[in-house]
Amino acid sequence: MGKRMRIGFPLMREEPGEKRVFLPDFVQKMTDAGFEVFLEEGYGNPLGFYFDDYKNDNPFVHPASREEVFQKEYVLILRSPSKSEYPSLGKNSCLISMLHYPTRPARIKLIKKLGMKTISLDSVVDDFNVRLVENMKAVAWNGLDAAFSQFSKNNPALLKNSGDPWSVLVIGSGVVGKHAVDAASKFGRPQRNASHIEKGGSGVIVRTIGRNITRHPKLIIELLKGTDVLVDATQRHSPSEPIIRNEWLSQLPEQAIIVDLSVDPYSLDTAPPIVKGIEGIPQGNLDKFVFESDDPDWDEMVPPEIPSQNRRMTVSCYSWPGIHPEACMRHYGQQIRRLMRVLCTKNYDTLSPDGLYFERALYRARVDTFLNN
Amino acid sequence: MNSENKLTIGLPIMHVEAGEKRAFLPKLVGCLEKYGAQVVLENGYGAGMGLSPEAYQQAAPALIYTANDEVFQQDIIFILRCPDEGRIRSMRRGSCLVSMLHYGTRPKRIKLLRSLGLQAISLDSITDDSGRRMIENFNAVAWNGMDAAFKLLQKIYPSPGFFDPTRPPIHITLVGAGTLGAHTVRAAVRYGNLPLQEKLVKAGVPGVIVSAVDYDITNHADIMHDLLGHTDILVDASSRKDTTRPIIANNWLAHLPPYAIVLDLCVDPYQQIGDAFHTKGIEGIPQGNLDQYMFTPDDPAFDQIPAQVPSIERRHTVSCYSWPGIHPPACMQIYGSQLHPIMRTLVSRGGVANINPDGNFFERAISRALLSNFQSSTGEK
Q: How far apart, in whole angstroms, are the C-alpha atoms of residue A38 and residue A19?
């Protein structure tokens, strides 16, 4: 048997709440596929796994330092390492990660400058341009669950005194919006929905609107008046313009909750500048994703140039799927496993646009393919 | 297997309503031959879509044309919609039917296939490791259905007219928030037609508000009556556990404005199975097909609805058993691309008997769709 392809797994070093790692079962499957695996010391600890869980007497699983891991032929990490670590990657290494080529021009510039080989997981698409590595469902369900968890603190069965149904307004009808409708119609959690039905609750009406409504302020304001949960699931053509102006939020009932699923950042120093779809709400992460309307962090997180005087409780998280790390990584593991089988026999340079199904999908995610298109 | 020990695959024409023109495209047929199968096409295959025998022969030079009964004698019968009972009975014992078989809702069909000693792969049951259907065209169901509904609404919308910028937004009430419902939301806010959407946006005409409700809310008549009173298009995209009970009773339709349209996307049939009568999600609407999918309230089709189904309250209705079939080439291109790796796997393994349930991604997916692996809700295998 020839030499095994070597793959390194570094830890994600973002906020402390980021606990996600590939699971032991996934690592075993990598060795079954023909890889030799190197795990950064401490890999899995945030999720309660230890090296022995990964090793499991497998001769092809090894511990390694972060520096060593970065030298392997493939480096697999869900969220991109910081740009300062890019030069540490081996000359012949290929970084496999969520790199978001279209919306990260500075990252692309650096990748190009360093001559790196990268495969962006969010760019792995099939023949119909459908993403093969995604967890939009978790984005929607975790976001809506976070919102209804707040309501259910004082009202576990979510029964309204008026007997009215709950009213959710979803802005955007793309992939996240579609899942958001499903999640919202079940209060973000099937068990919660079942309990609500059992107790005779009136359910949820989920209203969805697209840009042909959002450009009519009068219609929007009318809709906001009766909304309990406002969801941003948009993918805007022009991220420099908000869809819901902060002044309009004054029309939302006081107890309403805003759910930010798009999680566009405030980036005012880029050209063109980027603002959130709902103006004046904070950006959360895995450490903190619930913001009360009187949260002192609000002023820290929203740039002063952005109007934010009208505030409602907001749930926002840069990595919604990461809220349930193990389920998230089981999901990604299934999706990525089949791609890695291809990469065990092919490498970045030999991937072909005319290969089989998964090979074609991987080819589309190479940085060179992105730059040449 | 034929005399050269090649797996034989028969592709019959879908002999259903005249409007059913779909056939697998030459590219997919060519791949079957390329991967090692002997392809047998029914005489006239593809003609409904304007595809000539030359187009197929160019893609698969060794293919054979023959009569319908001979096509059904091959190792694998590959056809999008399930053939009728007579044709299923003509299949060879041990051969395999690859088609949309809908195991979950067609108990009689399962019984028949098993009694004849046939194997089957239900295309609608081919799922990936996370349970997602791999052969589906929900997108076309939603878009084609919404497109048809809006075309009709444009004609019957009251004053000031559908294209008038002063008219209120269009209100759509959507029953069902699952996969089909999700596609429907996306199609609905775009009028099921992107050029129409652009035109209306440019003219400043207010758009569409979609109110999605899960089936539990439909137990609250007062809420539903109120909602129906403001509804321009009522859509059934539900996936009911119990199809013996409607979600929207016929007398509720009285609350809809007179010009409102009922759009039936889930197209559950009216059918008697054993002692139970199964009904549509919206009670008292006709079932359409590719020959006729638009019905005015006075259409004779309403009178063909089984007598035990109340149908006094009638609105314009849009219903089609095969929504994707309205645009045959686009539909078959999608299915062709989805089926390509499935059929490659099936042919390269030498047929269904060699599919390994623990094999590669596509083998696992096929295995989940085998009749022999289907277990009914009653535990029957």
A: 19
The runs of H, that is alpha helices, within B205-324 are: 221-229
Beginning with the edge strand found earlier in the chain, give each strand of the sheet holding B316-319 in spatial order. A290-291, A313-316, A257-260, A229-232, A166-171, A204-209, B208-213, B170-175, B233-236, B261-264, B316-319, B294-295
Secondary element (H or E) of residue A315: strand A313-316
- CA distance to A118, A123, A175, B241, per residue, from A100 (Å): 11, 7, 17, 40
Kind of pairing between the strands at B294-295 and B316-319: antiparallel
Residue B118 lies in a domain: yes
Q: For the whole model, what pTM was predicted?
A: 0.88
B282 close to B234: Cβ distance less than 8 angstroms: yes
In a domain, residue B282? The reply is yes
Tell me whether 0.95 is exceeded by the ipTM: no
Q: Which residue ranges of chain B lie beneath pLDDT 50?
A: 377-378, 381
> From the list A202, A207, A219, which residue is nearest B210 (CB)?
A207
Cis peptide before B12 (omega within 30 of 0): no
- Residues B347 and B35 sit within 8 Å (Cβ to Cβ): yes
Interface test with B, best of A159, A168, A192, A208 (most B CBs within 10 A): A208
pLDDT in tens, B193-208: 999 999 999 999 999 9
Model confidence pLDDT, tens digit, residues A72-115: 999 999 999 999 999 999 999 999 999 988 878 889 999 999 99
Could you say which of 2.40.30.10, 3.40.50.2300, 3.30.70.2740, 3.40.50.720 is the CATH number of the domain covering A136-322? 3.40.50.720
Q: How many domains are there within chain B?
A: 2
A110-120 CB burial, b ≥16 within 10 A, e <16: ebeeeebbbbb
In whole angstroms, give the CA distance from residue A149 to residue A134: 24
B207 to A211: CB separation less than 8 angstroms, yes or no = yes
Binding-face residues of A in 181-200 toward B, CB within 8 A: 181-182, 184-186, 193, 197
Nearest CB neighbour to B209, from listed A185, A203, A209: A209
* Listed residue (A277, A282, A280, A275) closest to A307, CA to CA: A280
Same structural domain, B320 and B332: no
| Alpha-carbon distance values, B220 to A182, A203, B242, B285 (Å) | 19, 9, 18, 21
Under DSSP, the state recorded for B127 is B
Going by their DSSP bridges, the two strands A166-171 and B170-175 should be labelled as unpaired
Average pLDDT rounded to a whole number, residues A198-210: 93
Q: Which residues pair with B276 in a beta bridge?
A: B273
Report the residue from A205, A212, A219 with minimal CB separation from B201.
A212
How far is B362 from B343, CA to CA, in rounded Å?
9
CB contact under 8 A, A219 and B337: no
Domain assignment present for B2: no
* C-alpha triplet A367, A79, A291: angle, nearest 5°: 135
CATH 3.40.50.720 fits A5-131+325-372, yes or no: yes
Residues of chain A neighbouring B220 (CB-CB closer than 8 A): 165, 202-203
- A113 in contact with chain B, both atoms CB, cutoff 8 A: no
Rounded to whole angstroms, the maximal C-alpha distance in chain B is 72
Contact A97, A120 (CB under 8 A): yes
Domain annotation covers residue B153: yes
From residue A362, alpha-carbon distances to A107, A108, B147, B314 in Å are 20, 18, 35, 52
Q: Please give the Cα distance from A253 to A164 (Å, whole number).
A: 15
Cα-Cα-Cα-Cα dihedral sign, residues A13, A19, A22, A23: positive
Q: Is B273 helix (H, G, I), strand (E, B) or coil?
A: strand
Considering only the beta carbons, identify the residue of B177, B220, B361 that sits closest to A206. B177
Q: Please answer whether residues A122 and A98 qualify as being in contact, where contact means their C-beta atoms are separated by less than 8 angstroms.
A: yes
Query: Do residues B283 and B309 lie in contact, with contact meaning Cβ atoms separated by under 8 Å?
Result: yes
Identify which of B225, B50, B219, B280 has the alpha carbon closest to the alpha carbon of residue A196.
Answer: B219
